[in-house]
Structure formats: C-alpha cells, structure tokens
Design a protein that fits this description.
The structure is a single chain. By secondary structure, the protein is an alpha+beta fold. A 3-stranded mixed β-sheet has the order 1-2-3, with helices on one face. The longest helix is centred in the middle third of the chain and has 25 residues.
C-alpha cells in the first residue's frame, strides 16, 4: 500500500472532500488511522461496488465447491427437467 493511501483521522475531519477526491481519482482505498492504528477505510463508490460484485462471485464459487464436495448436485438432464417444470408452472398461473 502506498504511503499516500494512509491518512490520519484528523485529515479526514479537516479535509474530507480532498480525501474523497483522492480516493476517487486513484481508484484505491485510503486507510484512515486513529492513534496510529488503522480504524476505517475510505473508498470510492464505483470501486466498492466492483469489490462487492467480485466478493459475491467468490462466495458463489465457494458454495458451489462445497455443494460438489457434499454431493449436492444434479445432472444436466435433471436440471433441465426441473427448469421446464418451473417454467410450465409459471405459465399456468
């Protein structure tokens, strides 16, 4: 992490707009410190949303691996059969 990506809480209090602008321009989070310890992270919204999407995909991959390991799988043919039944049920409503 670059030194410029660390800021004390006093800087956040004094010049929040500048820190927000820096986080947005750099597209990199800024660690906020309090008494010399990291206590918070300031990040632009676009980067945050991108990180959340990536995390969600990782969670799905992890769940898929766990399902396979536990034998919670169905064949492609069974999946198609279940999907067709769901679609038919929706059409009849």
């Amino acid at each position: 992490m670059k030194l410029s990506n660390i800021a004390p809480i006093t800087e956040l209090k004094r010049d929040a707009a500048s820190l927000i602008e820096r986080a947005s321009e750099q597209r990199s989070p800024i660690v906020i410190t309090q008494n010399g310890r990291a206590t918070a992270v300031l990040q632009d919204v676009e980067s945050y949303e991108q990180d959340r999407r990536a995390f969600s995909l990782l969670q799905l991959a992890h769940q898929g691996e766990a399902d396979i390991a536990e034998g919670r799988t169905v064949s492609r043919a069974e999946h198609k059969k279940r999907l067709a039944a769901l679609l038919k049920a929706r059409e009849s409503k």
